[in-house]
Amino acid sequence: MTKKELRKKYKTLRFELTENQIDDFSIAIANQLLKLPVWEYSYYHIFLSIEALKEINTDYILNILSGKDKNIIIPKSDFETGELTNYLLTDNTVIKKNNYNIPEPVDGIEISNNKIDVVFIPLLAFDKSGNRVGYGKGFYDKFLSQCRPETLKIGLSFFEAEDEIGDVFQGDIGLDYCVTPKTLYNF
């Protein structure tokens, strides 16, 4: 399937999920993450969930990161440049929804991309080779291309892998891992 077809399919599947399913799947994903060998690092980048789009509830992962005393980095989107600016999440960080309903930091301590060790990536679909399909704006491809090559890229998905994404192109940045409620994928 093409990215466009996969976006349509997985947006529909996601919107069919109940709040209880989203909560149960989000907890299962957080528990699966604990099995990965990725907890010795310092700087962890994570998105804040867009509830209206029925995204994974990342609060559970935030709690794990906080409990492990990690530096939590959250993004702010610039829709004019297509870039993410990343901020350290602190007790003083003010979170506000932008015009696209994305919860973001208003401002704070900016963290450069080359400091980030692990990135948890929102996605709609992924395949068995670690290719991913997001919303199609390219924010994460641009951001990941500015991170160190050894930065770990971990996709989070309610659904299992597709066999293949038909229209992957050279600028697409693949995943190192993807975590679903049932499976840990290692690419």
From TrEMBL:
Keywords: ATP-binding, Ligase, Magnesium, Metal-binding, Nucleotide-binding. SUPFAM superfamilies: NagB/RpiA/CoA transferase-like. Gene3D superfamilies: NagB/RpiA/CoA transferase-like. The keyword Nucleotide-binding applies. One of its GO terms (molecular function) is metal ion binding. GO terms for biological process: folic acid-containing compound biosynthetic process; tetrahydrofolate interconversion. Belongs to the 5-formyltetrahydrofolate cyclo-ligase family. PANTHER family: ATPASE INHIBITOR/5-FORMYLTETRAHYDROFOLATE CYCLO-LIGASE (PTHR23407), CHROMOSOME UNDETERMINED SCAFFOLD_24, WHOLE GENOME SHOTGUN SEQUENCE (PTHR23407:SF11). This is 5-formyltetrahydrofolate cyclo-ligase. The lineage of its organism: Bacteria, Pseudomonadati, Bacteroidota, Flavobacteriia, Flavobacteriales.
